[in-house]
Design goal:
The chain has about 280 residues and is an alpha+beta fold. The chain folds into 2 domains: about 1-80 and about 240-275, no CATH class; about 85-235, no CATH class. About 20% of the residues lie in helices and about 30% in strands. The chain has 2 helices and 19 strands. The strands form 7 sheets. Strands 7, 8, 11, 15, 16 and 17 form a 6-stranded antiparallel beta sheet that branches. A 3-stranded antiparallel beta sheet has the order 12-13-14, with no helix packed on it. The longest helix is centred in the last third of the chain and has 34 residues, at about 240-275. The radius of gyration is 28 Å and the shape is elongated. The two termini are about 20 Å apart.
Length: about 280
């Protein structure tokens, strides 16, 4: 009976976490460059139940031996195995702001070891050192004239340097080259991750490598083709309609487990209050 409690409780916990993930996706449906999280639910290993008993042999010494009779398998519940980001391209939105830049995926190779498609990101300088990466190209110029993102992190060039611009009257070519007054200023830094699932997702649409190592430049990377588009932003790749359906499904599954838990509780209550009196 108590095994049933644990099985149902594990299902409720898994569905609760799935609901939280879907809710967070829906809350960021309008966040530029946001990559929706996807969860995978997996069952714990099944247990094989057997009944162990003694069998007497009609002999003078009354010998007996133990035997095991298989009863069947028992499922021990489920758990949320992992949460991975969906790095698919989001739709483009025109903003008419020269400081907004969108990344457009072209040809991105498949990683042979993981089977996942690679992904490209803007390079940002982290205040604590190292680099972080993002798909959100909602940039602006700070008070000193440096190109920064919404959190104030400096946008880096392909050489890893901060990008200084006198004002926002500049042009960004498809290959990321920034031109001001017909003079090439820098090339916006874009990094490539062969297996983006190993990246750590942080707040505000930022990603970082596990060990803090720098991702290689996407420029001149074999098999990688992409483009940049000025005055556009890449929208979130959250499918609101699908997310709403998944949210209702997770809620119904949680509710079903809750009713089973209540049934177990009522059975235990009868076992304690009624059978115990006999």
């Amino acid at each position: 009976m108590f095994k049933g409690f644990y099985t149902v409780a594990s299902g409720m916990i898994a569905q609760q976490r799935k609901t939280e993930i879907i809710t967070n996706n829906m809350a960021n449906a309008n966040t530029p460059g946001y990559k929706a999280d996807q969860s995978t639910i997996r069952s714990f290993p099944d247990m094989l139940i057997s009944a162990i008993g003694n069998t007497n042999i009609p002999t003078e010494k009354n010998l007996n031996f133990q035997n095991a009779q298989e009863i069947g398998g028992l499922n021990t519940g489920v758990y949320l195995q992992e949460t991975l980001a969906n790095y698919g391209q989001g739709s483009l939105m025109q903003t008419n702001l020269t400081t907004d830049v969108a990344l457009i995926d072209g040809t991105l190779p498949i990683d042979e070891e993981s089977g996942n498609q690679g992904a490209i990101f803007f390079r940002l300088e982290h205040p604590n050192g190292g680099e972080v990466y993002t798909r959100n190209g909602n940039f602006t110029l700070d008070g000193q004239g440096y190109l920064v993102n919404g959190n104030g992190y400096y946008v880096l060039s392909n050489e890893g340097e901060r990008i200084y611009l006198p004002n926002d009257d500049f042009q960004v070519a498809e290959d990321g080259t920034i031109t001001f007054a017909d003079v090439n200023v820098a090339q916006i830094g874009v990094s490539f991750s062969a297996n983006p699932d190993v990246l750590v997702k942080q707040d505000n649409g930022l990603f970082r490598t596990i060990d803090g190592a720098l991702l290689p430049s996407a420029y001149n990377q074999e098999g990688v083709a992409f483009g940049l588009k000025q005055s556009y932003l890449e929208g979130s790749n959250v499918d609101s309609a699908r997310s709403m359906t998944d949210l209702l499904t997770a809620y119904r599954a949680f509710e079903a487990n809750q009713k089973v838990l209540q049934a177990y509780d009522q059975s235990m209550q009868k076992a304690v209050n009624e059978i115990g009196k006999v």
